[in-house]
Amino acid sequence: MDKRERERPRVVLGVSGGIAAYKACELLRRLTESGHDVRVVPTASALHFVGEATWSALSGHPATTEVWESVHEVPHVRIGQAADLVVVAPATADMLAKAAHGLADDLLTNTLLTARCPVVFAPAMHTEMWENPATQENVATLRRRGAIVVEPAVGRLTGVDTGKGRFPDPVEIFALCRRVLARGAQGAAVTDLTGRHVVVSAGGTREPLDPVRYLGNRSSGKQGYALAATAAARGARVTLVAGNAELPDPVGVDVVPVGTARQMREAVLKAAADADAVVMAAAVADFRPAVYTTVKIKKVDSREPEPITLVRNPDILAELSADRVRPGQVVVGFAAETDDVLANGRAKLARKGCDLLVVNEVGEHKTFGSAENEAVILAADGTETPVPYGPKEALADTVWDLVAPRLAENRR
């Protein structure tokens, strides 16, 4: 093996025996084409769905289920020891049970026991199997031990059934794997949010004037979605309350769609009841029309429109900060400012009473809709953390870098 091959991130792709095994081929392709050295370890059941030749051809490595092949290389130990990441996709209910109980009856389960790197499980099964208390207990056990078990998607299952249990989008699993590997390469704590439930709000609310028009804002939801995705990659259970965001659901995240500020308040407060941290990244409308017209407001020639009277919307961030339903809960707010950015941000931090406030400058062609962001994170203890211009995922990780130690301190 030359130096270049040794420097390639080494990924073990475990494939268990579910119909979604064929979708793992797309994940494998993306991993190999982006420069990862991937070894596929299927179960015997997985080979009923996708043959060994396919896995070997796509990965460039032999794919076997047996611990008795190439015994001199001790594969049941060496594969896990050498990996930078193990991802099991799909992970069946049977595989989750075996992993949770430390069983080792084939090459994949042996690999899981010897791995000292981050482990990601992407479950896929029928809704009844996912919701069964035994499966939920196995998932909870794996998460307590530091594994990342992403939430399955909701959609069409085998046959005519529909529900939660669908294999997550391989593109999103690939993105999560990239994030996990990147944090590991930086020497950062990969799963420092394991066992935590975090709530993130994203997007912009819309306050209807009539059945056609609304008052809204320019928020795309990208920063909130980045916060949700990075939290999931760090092991958290994530609830994303999304206001009018036209973005794909981050893998492993429970998404609650809302429209108005009042709907967002209801959803956030409900989710926050058992949350360790709440991050209010959404652009929530401060005001709404006092009257909603059930028919379209007509334009009348030569007559000026009637003035629109506005009333205040609830202040969700202030309410969360003042009435924390869970001891030690960390609350993070966002302040989008157009002038006197830091001065306005410090005043807002004092007024809202949150633990951290992410302050950034916004404008018609700045921040909103962009893939990049720049901010200063103000803390209630007076510290300030500047985040230079860069991907919104980088800002999201910095937010969690500040939240995680506060959660650890609160747990003591």
TrEMBL record:
Region feature Phosphopantothenate--cysteine ligase, mapped onto this chain: 198-412
Ranges for region Phosphopantothenoylcysteine decarboxylase: 1-197
UniProt keyword Magnesium present: yes
Keyword Ribonucleoprotein: no
Domain DNA/pantothenate metabolism flavoprotein C-terminal: 193-404
Gene3D superfamilies: CoaB-like (3.40.50.10300), Flavin prenyltransferase-like (3.40.50.1950)
GO molecular function, one term: phosphopantothenate--cysteine ligase activity
Catalysed conversion reaction: (R)-4'-phosphopantothenate + L-cysteine + CTP = N-[(R)-4-phosphopantothenoyl]-L-cysteine + CMP + diphosphate + H(+); N-[(R)-4-phosphopantothenoyl]-L-cysteine + H(+) = (R)-4'-phosphopantetheine + CO2
Assigned keywords, A-Z: Decarboxylase, Flavoprotein, FMN, Ligase, Lyase, Magnesium, Metal-binding, Multifunctional enzyme
Physiological role: Catalyzes two steps in the biosynthesis of coenzyme A. In the first step cysteine is conjugated to 4'-phosphopantothenate to form 4-phosphopantothenoylcysteine, in the latter compound is decarboxylated to form 4'-phosphopantotheine. Catalyzes two sequential steps in the biosynthesis of coenzyme A. In the first step cysteine is conjugated to 4'-phosphopantothenate to form 4-phosphopantothenoylcysteine. In the second step the latter compound is decarboxylated to form 4'-phosphopantotheine.
Similarity section: In the N-terminal section; belongs to the HFCD (homo-oligomeric flavin containing Cys decarboxylase) superfamily. In the C-terminal section; belongs to the PPC synthetase family.
NCBIfam families xrefs: coaBC_dfp
Annotated protein name in UniProt: Coenzyme A biosynthesis bifunctional protein CoaBC
Organism encoding this protein: Streptomyces endophytica
